[in-house]
Structures are given as C-alpha cells and as structure tokens.
Design goal:
Blueprint (H helix, E strand, L loop, with lengths): L4 E7 L16 E2 L2 E2 H12 L5 E5 L4 H8 L4 H5 L5 E2 L4 H11 L7 E6 L7 H14 L1 E7 L6 E2 L5 E3 L7 E3 L3 E4 H9 L9 H7 L5 E4 L10 H14 L2 E15 L2 E4 L2 E4 L2 E3 L7 H14 L4 H4 L13 H13 L3 E10 L9 H12 L6 E6 L5 H4 L3 E12 L3
Parallel strand pairs: 1-4, 1-6, 4-5, 7-12, 17-18
Antiparallel strand pairs: 2-3, 6-11, 7-10, 7-11, 8-9, 13-16, 13-19, 14-15, 17-19
The structure holds magnesium ion (MG).
C-alpha cells in the first residue's frame, strides 16, 4: 500500500516584503492568482487525499475567488481551508491539527508562494520522509555566505561546502511533526525543520531544485510570471456566431443577465446568444468542436438550461489543458433591447462564469440599420471572439 500523504500549503502570510494591499499569494501572475499555480503544480505532482491550504482569516474572499480559477481536478483535491495564526509556525500547527483525526502517515508542508514544485521533487520528498522521518529539500549555496553582527561587521565566514539553502516542501512523518509542534516552547521558528530540531529530531536534507524558487519580491513575481507564461505561450483565437429568434415573452437572457423586454428569445436552452457565441469561440480556439457537440440539443437534459453551464464548461476545458483565457469580446446585433444600460452587468457576469478579470471582457452592440432579420426585429445575432493561451503541443 502506498503511504497516505497529506499536503499543507501555508498561505496565511501578509507578504510584507512585496508591499501593497493584497498579500503576494493572491497577486495576479500569468493570468491567475499566484496561489493557483502553486496548488495546480502540487496537485498535479501527486494525488493527495486532501490538500489543505492554511489562509489568513481576512483572506477568505481572496481565497474563494482564487479557488474559482482552478482547474476542476485541482479544486477537487482541496479540503476546506484552515485559518492560520499570528506566525507561520502557528499557522502550520493549525493545519496539522486539522489533519490529526485523519492521521496520515506523511505530511508535506509547502509555501503558498512556491509555484514551481515538480513531480520529481515531490517524489523525493515523500521518499525522504519515509526514510528519515524528517527531511527538507536543499540546494548547494552558490553565493558565499557571511555571518554579520548588528553593525554589519563580518564575524564569521562559514565554509560554503557545508551550507545549504532550504526550500519546501518539507517532509515529515505526521505523528513526529505534530508532536514537535505541540511541544514547541518557542513560537518564532521560521520553518518546520527548526520545529523538528527543537524537539530533538535529526532532520536530513534531500536534493532540492534550483527551479523551485519562492516569490518574495516584485522582481520574483515578474520572473515567475515570465516562466509561467512561457508554459502557456501559444496564442490562439477562436470565433463564435449565434442567432436566436424572438418569441412572445417578457425578457431576454443576454450575457448571463436577464433583461426585461416585450419578447423572449426562443431556443432549446435559455437561448442566451451571447454566451453561446462565446462558448463556441473558446471551443474553436481549442479545436474542440462546438457547443452542439458537447451539449447536443437532442439531449433533454439541456432543455431550458442556464447557458452559464456551457461557457463554464468551455472555460474549464481551457484550464484542463493548462491554458488561460486572455480575453473575450462580444458584439450583439439587434434593434432592441438597448444593450448599453446592461453592458457592465453582462461584462461582470461573463467574467465571473469564465473565471477571468472583468478587464478581459468586452461587450459591444450595434443595430443593422433596419436591414435584414435583426433589422426587422425578428431576433438577435451575436459575434464573439476569444483569445486563449495554451502550452505548446
Ligand atoms: Mg444558440
């Protein structure tokens, strides 16, 4: 039987060194909050029964918004988040206590701001914890290290060959690290290796990874963005077009918003032409057919369906392929209803369903100057374009 391995991602910090009102783990990086990349990398690397993220109580909304941007596989792997404490040590303790009933064999404790952990690194961490009980990934020092006093005077030059720079995930036998945290006398230990050491355990190092960097400064964030963007560097554009006819009614669904009108749009689902055109644009960019292929009109399940379902599915397909939606642009063609008063509500709803920022959505409208079927007020037509970025094949 493979060992039961739990994962704690520590994301309760305030990110003081990076500044700004939003903690760094929630700052946007390559189209999504940084923490999303960390969660995706870890949950892709190993099938954890439940990955627990420790968050600051003030960050619940930021966390929920970030989780909404995860692929469904990564979101499924997450347990309910745990609230952290005043220090990193306290936060990890809360995470460990939340797992005490489940009693996993091994626990990995990882920084929320390290988005580059590889599958190989996670495998080494688990192996090292099984072998030693307490182990941390480390890399050789490339810079010479000096110890200085409070005036900046060098007081020691430790031999570089014996020094290591320590990363996460730090890996432990669960009972060992839980007990070490419970009996820790000090509250200011900056990593879990120090907690294990304080409890008298030998902690071993295993091979870390120079790519497994931590985002601490704004420069780190930009570098991480460049590396993550390279992963999804192939830009693709898709188009979508849809038409629905008017029928007697009292409102039309457009862009996920119900607009009062003296007619409705006729269709198998809620007939939201805008969401249909956008979903088709995304499927087109992916090369994955169209809305009818994924949700056949012959299937009674989609009768009267909320079209948000279709757009959410298309957006999920982008995430499942490791991509991001760069922008969505929509043009509605109709004489009425007036679109302008509802534009912002539609942009917000489209952004919400697609899991992107509102600034990445555009909603425009035009009439057809009285010409054709839209001019005769027989229905509404919609054009949409979507730009997505995918990892190269
Ligand atoms: Mg349609």
């Amino acid at each position: 039987m493979p060992p039961r391995v739990s994962l704690i991602i520590v994301a309760a910090g305030r990110g003081a060194r990076i500044g700004g009102a939003i903690p760094k783990q929630y700052l946007s990086c390559a189209g999504r909050p940084l923490i999303c990349h960390t969660i995706e990398a870890l949950t892709r690397a190993h099938e954890f029964p439940a990955a627990t993220v420790v968050i600051h109580p003030d960050d619940r909304d930021l966390y929920d918004a970030a989780v909404a941007r995860l692929s469904s596989d990564a979101a499924r792997a997450l347990a309910t988040p745990v609230f952290g404490g005043a220090t990193r040590q306290h936060s990890v303790r809360n995470g460990l206590e939340s797992l005490a009933d489940a009693m996993p064999e091994i626990v990995l404790i990882h920084d929320g701001a390290r988005p580059f952990a590889s599958r190989e690194l996670i495998a080494r961490a688990i192996e090292a914890a099984l072998l030693h009980g307490a182990a941390v990934p480390a890399t050789p020092m490339t810079d010479t290290v000096k110890q200085v006093d409070s005036e900046g005077r060098i007081v020691a030059s430790p031999e570089r060959a014996s020094l290591r720079a320590v990363q996460t995930p730090q890996a432990f036998r669960f009972d060992l690290i839980l007990e070490a945290h419970r009996k820790a006398a000090r509250a200011d230990l900056t990593d879990d290796a120090a907690v294990a050491e304080a409890a008298g355990h030998s902690v071993f190092v295993f091979d870390g990874d120079f790519n497994n960097t931590k985002v601490t400064t704004m420069l780190d964030l930009r570098e991480a963005e460049a590396r993550l963007s390279q992963d999804a560097s192939e830009v693709r554009v898709g188009q979508g077009f849809d038409v629905h006819a008017f029928a007697p009614g009292d409102g039309v669904w457009l862009g996920g918003v119900l607009i009062p009108h003296d007619k409705k749009l006729e269709g198998h689902s809620d007939a939201d032409v805008a969401l249909h055109a956008i979903a088709d644009a995304i499927y087109g960019a992916l090369g994955e057919g169209d809305i009818g292929a994924h949700f056949p009109p012959s299937d009674a399940r989609w009768r009267g369906a909320d079209s948000a379902l279709f757009l959410a599915h298309a957006a999920e397909r982008v995430r499942a392929r490791g991509g991001v939606i760069a922008n969505i642009d929509v043009t509605l063609i109709c004489e009425s209803p007036k679109i302008g008063p509802h534009r912002e509500a539609m942009r917000a709803r489209i952004a919400e369903i697609a899991g992107i920022a509102i600034g990445r959505t555009g909603v425009k409208a035009t009439t057809s100057e009285g010409l054709g079927f839209t001019g005769r007020r027989e229905g509404i037509a919609c054009l949409a374009m979507a730009t997505i970025r995918l990892p190269p094949d």
